[in-house]
Amino acid sequence: MIRSRFAPSPTGYMTIGNLRSALYEYLIAKKDGGVFILRLEDTDQARYVEGAAQVIYDTLHRTGLHFDEGPNTGGNYGPYIQSQRKDSYMPPARKLVEEGKAYYCFCEKERLDTLADERGLKKYDRFCHKLSKDEVQAKLNSGVPYVIRQFIPDGRTAFTDRVYGEISIDNGELEDQILIKSDGMPTYNFANVVDDNAMAITHVVRGSEYLTSTPKYVLLYDALGWDKPVFVHLPLLQNADGTKISKRHGAASILEMLDEGYLPQAVINYAALLGWSPSGEYAEREIFTLDELEKIFDTSHISKSPSTFDPKKMTWVNAEHIKALPLDVYAEMALPYLQTAVKTAGIDMKELARITRSRVSFVKECAELVDFIDTLPSYEIDLYTHKKMKTDPAVALQALRAVQETFAGVTEWTGEGLQSVIAQTAESAGLAKGQILWTVRTALSGKPTTPCGATEIAVLLGKEETLRRLQKGIELLHA
Ligand code: GLU
After folding, report:
1. C-alpha Rg value of the chain to the nearest Å
2. Which of 16, 285, 361, 379 is 20–30 Å from 302 (CA)?
3. How far is the CA of 296 from the centre of ligand 1 (A)?
4. Are residues 81 and 94 in the same domain?
5. Are residues 243 and 145 in the same domain?
6. What is the pLDDT of residues 19-41, one digit of tens each?
7. Residue pLDDT, tens place only, 54-75
8. 5 CB under 6 A from ligand 1?
9. Does residue 247 carry a catalytic annotation?
């Protein structure tokens, strides 16, 4: 069974890059009915940021990436938290020491500082590896602080990454890495491997910045005799100007994006496309729900080349997901904005929702689309000029007068009724229907673009207000 994990360090908010790792882990598990877990890698107390864990829970919760397993926290699954698992790390470290694959190191900082090579890089010189068993025991007995280091054997270390293929390095490039720090806590690298094994993780997905650390993980798996997971390293994420997307570079936080009006499903959809592309019958599609992604995601279509975060594309994806919302759901989201923008009594809010749903990139934008309903904005007569339609202020005046007269007599104030009245008016006035519709829409809205046509606006405004605005238009054109 596939078991994947999202293993963030709680060092701040979550960026689209972090979310992408979580999402791919989630999709890999879900596609095969597997298990997705959350593990907080918080053994490095110096990097811990207050509140960061909660941000991770909230982000996963709001984007629908629910985890399937973890310590029971009163009926719910909690995440695995490394700092609460301290006791798990010393036994495997001791085992390595017993087998001669790791050793105690008592070197003090002052000595380590002298080891820098000409490039300023410090590679541990194995000073303590040369200590005899008795010397080590004597130091341990007298309480000298120590760390535990892995003894890196000679040779090469190779592994296959799902995305980057065969990778191999000379072990001479690696240092005898610290597994347990002097405070008894595991290092980040050691805890990561111990936990991936303890939690029977089959797939490890993370950013390509971890590619160079992976040989160290591989050496640990080998030293401990554990099965290695499948490694899936994800391409670099960059901004349009080529800079890396990271918290350090001020990348947007997912929670902020959600608060600004990006829908969770749009953020998920866009994150999925950052480095992966659908194939086969889905190759031409870009809009997917999480459920669909669960079915069609596959690691073989993750690209090696860096992917660029494009805010415009993200906004387009958002608009597409808004269009796809059931009207009731959209109406509920839009209502607070519509109610702020439109206070006129008797306006059909559901209709306002219907006409705006396919015209916004963010739900809140619905407000500005319908702001002409309460108050007709002041506009210039140039607004009546439309070359293609062959309308100008003179045609407009003629059209408005004709419509004013016919509309006054209408008893059935519905879209259909008004459409046929306009058709008749056009005919008797010798004008094109389009000329009348354009002119009436302008007089009723005072805007060059509106979310719906002339008759729909007239129905929304009602007869009295419609006639009043037609009259205003006539007066403006007369002046
Ligand atoms: N804890 C690491 C991070 O926050 C993830 C490492 C991993 O997934 O193995 O980036």
Report:
1. 33
2. 361
3. 25
4. no
5. no
6. 999 999 999 999 999 999 999 99
7. 999 999 999 999 999 988 777 7
8. no
9. yes
For all residues of the chain together, what is the average pLDDT?
94
Instruction: Identify whether residues 100 and 138 lie together within a single domain.
Output: yes
Q: What is the Å distance from ligand 1's center to 173 Cα?
A: 22
Report the distance separating Cα 391 and Cα 401, nearest Å. 14
Residue 246 pLDDT exceeds 80: no
If you take atom 10 of ligand 1, which residue's CA is the nearest one? 8
Ligand 1 pocket member 187 (CB < 6 A): no
CA distance 119 to 385: 72
Q: How confident is the model at residue 240 (pLDDT cuts 50, 70, 90)?
A: confident
CA-5 nearest atom, ligand 1: 8
Distance, CA 101 to ligand 1 centroid (Å)? 25
Ligand 1 centre distance from Cα of residue 437 (Å) = 60
Burial of 39 (0-12, 13-18, 19+ CB in 10 A): buried
What is the model's pLDDT at position 248? 66
Dihedrals φ, ψ of 120, to 5°? 85, 0
Indicate if 217 and 98 belong to the same structural domain: yes
In this structure, the answer to whether residues 180 and 285 fall within a common structural domain is: no
Q: What CATH number has the domain bearing residue 176?
A: 3.40.50.620
Single residue among 282, 308, 334 that ends a domain in this structure: 308
pLDDT value, residue 253 = 92
| DSSP output for 204-256 | EEEEGGGTTTHHHHHHHHHHHTPPPPEEEEEPPEE-TTS-B--GGGTPPPHHH
- Give mean pLDDT, residues 150-156: 97
Q: In this predicted structure, what is the pLDDT of residue 250?
A: 65
Of 247, 313, 447, 463, catalytic: 247
User: Lowest-confidence range among 99-108, 120-129, 222-231, 400-409?
Assistant: 120-129
Which atom in ligand 1 lies closest to the alpha carbon of residue 8? 4
Q: Do 93 and 228 fall within a single domain? A: yes
**pLDDT for position 433:** 96
Report whether pLDDT(249) > 70: no
CA–CA separation, 314 and 473 (whole Å): 40
Q: Does the beta carbon of 8 sit less than 6 angstroms from any atom of ligand 1?
A: yes
Ligand 1 pocket member 22 (CB < 6 A):
no
